[in-house]
Specification:
With about 120 residues, the chain is α+β, with helices and mostly antiparallel strands. The protein contains two helices and nine strands; from the N terminus they run ααβββββββββ. The strands form two sheets. It has a five-stranded antiparallel beta sheet with strand order 1-2-9-4-7.
């Protein structure tokens, strides 16, 4: 009985920990800007498109590689309220360990990114 109770408690904690991450999946909470192009058990490829001035909602990405298809100017708002401004050119590729953020295209042109999200042991 003690083992069963411990199992149920552990399972409950896991479900409450994992569920918020699923709820913050950008393809679910912001399907206007995020579209799954490919997915298997190792990676998920997401196309991200923002018009000038458009922003998302707070969401989560696992570890990923981003391929920028256009020039970009983005402000990322982090969960603690701090902001990070990032600018770059089409063709750049960047690695990110993953995390939560709210992005906004601060440029005057549309931007497009292909994000290759890692699954499994690569998840940060």
């Amino acid at each position: 009985m003690k083992r069963f109770t411990m199992f149920v408690c552990t399972l409950t904690v896991m479900l409450f920990t994992i569920q918020p991450l699923r709820a913050q999946d950008p393809t679910k909470v912001d399907s206007k800007h995020y579209k799954v192009e490919f997915e298997n058990d190792q990676v998920r490829v997401v196309r991200i498109t923002y018009g000038p001035g458009e922003k998302s909602v707070m969401h989560y990405h696992p570890a990923n590689a981003a391929v920028f298809l256009t020039d970009y100017a983005v402000t990322f708002t982090l969960p603690d309220g701090k902001t990070v401004d990032v600018r770059g050119k089409a063709g750049e590729v960047a690695w990110d360990a993953g995390g939560k953020h709210l992005p906004q295209n601060t440029g005057d042109k549309p931007m497009q990114v292909v994000l290759v999200e890692m699954k499994g042991k690569h998840d940060a």
